[in-house]
Every structure is written in structure tokens, then in C-alpha cells.
Amino acid sequence: WPYYRIPLKEQLLLTLIKYRHNWEYRMLAIIFKIREGTAQEIFIFWTKLLYNRLETIDFWSMRSLNDGEYVVILDCTEIPVEKPAAPDLQQATFSKYKNTNTFKTLVAIDEQGVILFVSNIFGGCVSDNRIVEMSGIVDLLSEGDFVLADRGFEQIDALSAKGVVLNRPPRKKGAQLTEQEVASTRAIASRRIDVERVIGYAKTYKILKQKVKYSLFPMMDMIIKILF
């Protein structure tokens, strides 16, 4: 353990405050009576430590089986980021949907609301379908599994090839949906509300709600997985 002149519990508290309120390192340094650089070092150290501990847990094995129709419920969410200076990074992180620069991540829960999977971050320009294919979640699914998602996910070849069934709300075919399609849409929406709540809770942490500073870009994979 590095020696930072303040107790371990205060180091952890500093890190949690940074997650919750996203205060500047300068403010944290004043509160804990340490140097600004030390506050940053503590935050980086504890973020890596928490991430490494969480990575040893097999969350996928915690999914509920045979209790519901769906193995997982999927959703992608976007987190605003500072506009990078490099043109290639600007393009990679620009989200047409949000009309700003973002990171995207894929979240999967079971029908009991247990978080089973959180992907690494992707640039805002990457489609939901592509994130599913690149995230590694396809490898965890089995033939015959049912997956629930919203309209943002189109037919995903990688799931079809594995025999995984993707269920989404029906799209309009003409002026309006049929009664059966309306009922199906409502049923799917009632089940998807849990994943939306999970995402909404994670975004109560201001480090995910406010625009992510460029200096935090290298740590966002870890921060996302800790806070979800």
C-alpha cells in the first residue's frame, strides 16, 4: 500500500466523494489537508484497487434462472464527455443521437434487476448493435436464450448465429400499431423499466452525469464498472 499520510478510510472516503460529487482535486486536497497531486494519486490508486477486486467476481453466474422468460435485459447508455482536441477522437466520440461527444456502455440485468454485465466504454459514434457484438456479452449467452432490448437494437447477426432470440418492441407498419403490437410494446416497456432504473441510479453519481474531463478518459472503463 502506498503511504499517503492519511488513514486508509479517509483515502476511500476521498475516492467516494470524487465519484459522488466530482469535486476538483484542489477542493479534495483542501478538505483532507494534502497536496492536490496526492489527492489525484489516491483517487487513481483506489479506483484501480476497487476495479481489480470487482473483476474477480463472476456476476454472470448470479443471474436468476427459470424464474422469467428472459435471460437478460439490455440497454445502452451515453455519458457526456469533453470535446477532445484531436479530430479523430472528436469523430469517434460524437453521438448523432445526443448531438454531442459521449461515451457509450452496454448494461445487462436479469428480470430480478441484478446487474450481470457492464461493457467497456465505446465512442458515441458506435451503434448499439456494434457494441453488443464487440462487448463480449454474446460469448456469455447460449442457444435458445431470450434477450429483451428496445428499438435502438436492430437484428443482431451475432445473436442470430448463436440461436439467441432478441425481442424488441414492434415498429409501426403504417399509421398505427395493431392492438396486439400495442400490448406487446407495453409488456416489454414494463420489463425494461428496471434496466432504466439501474442506469438512472448510476447517473446520480456526478462523475457520470457531468461532462467527463479528458484527464479521466483512461479511467472510465474502471469507473463505469465500479459505479454500476
Structure description:
This is Putative dde superfamily endonuclease. It holds the Pfam family HTH_Tnp_4. Its cofactor is a divalent metal cation. It is globular, with a radius of gyration of 20 Å. The protein has two domains: about 10-55; about 60-225, Ribonuclease H-like superfamily/Ribonuclease H (Nucleotidyltransferase, domain 5, 2-Layer Sandwich). The protein contains ten helices and seven strands. Helix 2 (about 25-30) packs across helix 3 (about 35-55). Helices cover about 45% and strands about 15% of the residues.
What would you say about this model in short?
The protein is α/β, with parallel strands linked by helices and 228 residues long. It is 45% helix and 14% strand.
What tags apply to this protein structure?
about 230 residues; alpha/beta; Nucleotidyltransferase, domain 5; 10 helices; 7 strands
Secondary structure elements and pairings:
Elements: H1 8-21, H2 25-32, H3 36-54, E1 72-80, H4 87-93, E2 94-95, E3 100-109, E4 115-118, E5 122-123, H5 128-135, H6 137-140, E6 146-148, H7 157-162, E7 165-167, H8 179-202, H9 206-209, H10 220-227
Parallel strand pairs: 1-6, 6-7
Antiparallel strand pairs: 1-3, 2-3, 3-4, 3-5
Helix pairs in contact: 1-3, 2-3, 3-10
The CATH topology of the largest domain: Nucleotidyltransferase, domain 5
Helix-strand category: alpha/beta
Total helices: the number is 10
Tell me the series of helices and strands, N- to C-terminal.
HHHEHEEEEHHEHEHHH
Strand content: 5-15%
What is the number of independent domains? Answer: 2
Overall pLDDT level: 89
Q: Any idea of the CATH class of the largest domain?
A: Alpha Beta
Q: Rg, please?
A: 20 Å
Question: What characteristic shape results from the CA principal axes?
Answer: globular
Give the biggest beta sheet.
7 strands, mixed
Number of strands: 7
Amino-to-carboxy terminus distance: 26 Å
* CATH architecture title of the largest domain: 2-Layer Sandwich
Low-confidence stretches: none
Q: How much helical structure, as a percent, in the residues?
A: 40-55%
CATH fourth-tier homologous superfamily of the largest domain: Ribonuclease H-like superfamily/Ribonuclease H
